[in-house]
Amino acid sequence: MTYKHILVPVDESPISYAAVEQALALAKTLDCQVTVTSVIAVDPFVGVDFYKIAPAVTDYFMQAEKNAQLRLADIKQSFLRDGIDVDTKIIRGVSPAEGVIHVADEVGADLIIMGSHGRTGFKKLVLGSVAQAVLTQSPIPVLIIKV
Q: What are the protein's UniProt keywords (predicted)?
């Protein structure tokens, strides 16, 4: 099977950058388009009294957005240096897995490459796994990079 459009979801973790490197190598080999996305989720404030912390929420989202924009711009340059057609997208207000699936559908991706911590047992149960959720919900192939 050949791929024409790779989606790479990233966050601030080194694992994301390992997925970016794999996507970069594969995109060069297959001469395909890449979309790099970052999801800004509401998760840190679930169950918190919004009115008491509204300024903190606003600051959090503004900083998260700025960090995501800088991260995506930096990653985009890596692809452009190698002559790879790349686009970036920021998704807001949904769970990371839901955002990834939505962007994959929206851009017509036919492969998702993402990193995973490879947690197991209790750590996976407590911390959840975005990669696991995407893997089970995605209608397209998902390549998981474990670091």
A: Cytoplasm
pLDDT greater than 80 at residue 132:
yes
Task: Report whether 71 contacts 38 (CB < 8 A).
Answer: yes
- Structurally, how many domains does the chain consist of? 1
Residues spanned by the domain of 100: 6-146
Neighbouring CB atoms inside 10 A of 14's CB total 8
Residue tagged 């911390």 (tokens): 127
- Rounded CA-CA distance 117/123 in Å is 10
CA distance 131 to 145: 10
Q: Is 96 helix (H, G, I), strand (E, B) or coil?
A: helix
Within a domain: 1: no
d(CA 55, CA 77): 33
Q: Which pLDDT tens digit goes with each residue over 9-39?
A: 999 888 899 999 999 999 999 999 999 999 9
Q: Could you tell me the strand order of the sheet in which 33-40 lies?
A: 86-92, 33-40, 5-9, 111-116, 142-146
